[in-house]
Amino acid sequence: MKNETIEKLIAKQKFAYIASVDQDGYPNMKAMLAPRRREGLKEFYFTTNTSSQRVAQYRKDPKAAIYFCDQRFYRGIMLKGKMEVIEDATTKKSIWQVGDRIYYPKGVTDPDYCVLKFTTDQGRWYSGFKTDDFTP
Questions:
Q1: Tens-digit pLDDT string for the chain (136 aa)
Q2: How many Å separate Cα 114 from the centre of its chain?
Q3: Where is 4: in which H helix or E strand?
Q4: Is-contact 20 54, C-beta < 8 A?
Q5: H helix intervals, 45-132
Q6: Which of 40, 86, 133, 136 is 20 to 30 A distant from 125 in Cα terms?
Q7: In angstroms, rounded to a whole number, what is the distance separating the alpha carbons of residues 128 and 126?
Q8: Pair type for strands 130-134 and 113-127
Q9: If phi over 0 gives left and psi between -120 and 50 gives alpha, with beta otherwise, what is residue 18?
Q10: Rounded to whole angstroms, what are the CA distances from 97 to 6, 45, 85?
């Protein structure tokens, strides 16, 4: 039941917060558009610019976290794991959307377009003033 509730919360969000680790070992957070594709609570796919600071950080240190929250009910889910930078044509095409040309004028083959694939190792659910750690 908990996984079902968490998945529904994630599906309703327009944004996600992603974290990376900088060169000095400090966490860096960024709001992103919701993941384009998701496989349960295990894998999440985001689009971003290859030239971004975040991509450079993940290439150096793939440790990452993503966070989704439901402000209305004061609930949230933090997932810890690894972020992989993917540039293969098949994966890029699989999550490409027509409106993406605004960000990547050369289309799906734009060298500044890549995919971030997050794979969950652990999660922490917060609801009802309680936390619950889990492994998906």
A1: 578 899 999 999 999 999 999 999 999 999 999 999 999 999 999 999 999 999 999 999 999 999 999 988 899 999 999 999 999 999 999 999 989 999 999 999 999 999 999 999 999 999 999 999 999 8
A2: 13
A3: helix 2-12
A4: yes
A5: 53-60, 89-95
A6: 86
A7: 7
A8: antiparallel
A9: beta
A10: 26, 13, 19
Residue 111, token pair as written in the block: 């060298």
> Cβ(100)–Cβ(114) under 8 Å?
no
Kindly write down the DSSP assignment for every residue of 55-99, as one continuous string. HHHHHH--EEEEEEEETTTTEEEEEEEEEEEE--HHHHHHH--GG
In this structure, the number of other CB atoms found within 10 A of the CB of residue 16 comes to 20
Cα three-residue angle 61-66-71, rounded to 5 degrees: 155
Largest CA distance in the chain: 47
- Residue count (the chain): 136
Query: Closest Cα to residue 16, out of 129, 118, 131?
Result: 118
- DSSP-assigned letter for residue 35: P
Would you say 83 and 62 are in contact if contact means Cβ atoms under 8 Å apart?
A: yes
